[in-house]
Structures are given as C-alpha cells and as structure tokens.
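hiii so um. not sure if this is the right channel but i have a protein structure encoded as tokens and i wanna go backwards to a sequence. like what aa goes where. can anyone help
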C-alpha cells in the first residue's frame, strides 16, 4: 500500500529504529507513547485491520513477536499488556494491523 505509513516504516522508506524485526514482522516505538514502554508490532504485509486477516499465522507472528520484545526489554516480572484495536469503535486510527505492547505503569482496567 503506497500511501500507508506503517508499510513505509516496514519497508524502510521512513527510517525507523526497530526494536525487533524478522522476515514477517517489525517492532518499533510508538510516536505518542501511552505508557513508559509502548511498542508497536506490525506484519510487513499490509492488512487494514485484524478483521480482514485471512492467514492465522499473522496473529501468531504478532503475538510471539510481542512476547520476544517483552523478554528482550525485561518486562516479564512486572507484566505488560498486548492490545489490537480494531475498527472505529475499537479505537483503531492507523489502518495497517498492529499490536500495541504496553508496560511500565499500572494499566487500568477496563480500558476507556
Ligand atoms: P491505533 O489507534 O490505530 O490502535 O494505534 C495507532 C498508533 O500508531 C498510535 O498509538 C499512534 O501514536 C501511532 N502512530 C501513528 N503514526 C505513527 C508514526 O508515524 N510512527 C510511529 N512510531 N507511531 C505512529
Ligand atoms: Zn500498510
């Protein structure tokens, strides 16, 4: 998707420091962090949201990638949260599937 900001980040067109990357996913810090640790994990392939994913491996890649990042950042002891906002009422603002990894403070429940 030529006009998708996360495709541009994944391809390197927008230079970005990756916290983690492999053949299928990249992880990078959120521009507007909502917690002391706020990393986005995205598939390199463009999906507008979780709702249109047709390959379940995409979800396992995202979640296992997030767990790897959490381990690398030493988050296991205190804990963390993984979130995928989906669609308008789900609070999704960027239309390229992404998983939020949030940590470093007490995260309220239920979310807003
Ligand atoms: P959503 O609201 O779609 O679940 O999350 C989109 C996230 O992407 C937001 O937390 C927002 O701060 C982040 N974001 C939007 N544009 C950029 C960008 O260009 N770079 C980075 N690193 N994060 C972005
Ligand atoms: Zn995209």
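sure thing!! here u go:
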């Amino acid at each position: 998707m030529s006009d998708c900001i996360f495709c541009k980040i994944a391809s390197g067109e927008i230079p970005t420091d990756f916290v983690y990357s492999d053949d299928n996913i990249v992880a990078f810090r959120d521009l507007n962090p909502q917690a002391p640790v706020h990393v986005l994990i995205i598939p390199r392939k463009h999906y507008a949201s979780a709702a249109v994913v047709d390959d379940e491996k995409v979800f396992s890649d995202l979640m296992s990638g997030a767990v790897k990042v959490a381990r690398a950042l030493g988050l296991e002891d205190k804990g963390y949260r993984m979130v995928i906002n989906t669609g308008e009422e789900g609070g999704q603002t960027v239309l390229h599937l992404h998983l939020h990894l949030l940590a470093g403070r007490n995260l309220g429940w239920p979310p807003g």
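oh and The helical segments are 5-11, 57-72.
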